[in-house]
Amino acid sequence: MGSSQSAPRKVTLENPNETIIEITDGVINRLDGANNSEKIQPESVSSTQPPSINENAAAFVTSQEIRRQVDKVVQENDNFWQSRIKILRDGYQKIGVELEAEYQKATKDVNHSLGTHFGDGNASNDSCRSSQASVVDCFSQNSNRPLLCANEVQKFNECVSSLSCVKAK
């Protein structure tokens, strides 16, 4: 590759107009220079020079500026979603407070309508408390087999139902 000389190339053009073809001095000099193996210097040297340090610095500043802009957009996006999450949490907290208040009100209404206040030491509550304790004991002893406690659960259910019926009268 490249070790042997290349053969000269001859180009023949046919001129259909039968007129004379004019060749400028520049073309002759270039052809003559190619035969002499002289390299021709281009007229505009500045276009072939590598970019100067100032141009590289401008490109570097541009990439830094792009990075800053991207970081700014990402930060704005993070701030937006953090504020959105805070708004949602506050909303859910308000809903939770309202639900808790409604639950307390419903519990108070049920207790008032049944005429019972759990933990007030009534003898009727004590009878259900013993069956409740037996249900809890049964579940703790048979944690893997809860169906074995069906009888205790049924007794507790009957006790509560009887209390509800008595209080409703």
Automatic annotation (TrEMBL):
InterPro entries registered for this protein in UniProt: MICOS_subunit_Mic19
One Gene Ontology term, aspect cellular component: MICOS complex
BP GO terms, sorted: inner mitochondrial membrane organization
Protein name, entry field: MICOS complex subunit MIC19
Gene source species: Parthenolecanium corni
Organism lineage string: Eukaryota, Metazoa, Ecdysozoa, Arthropoda, Hexapoda
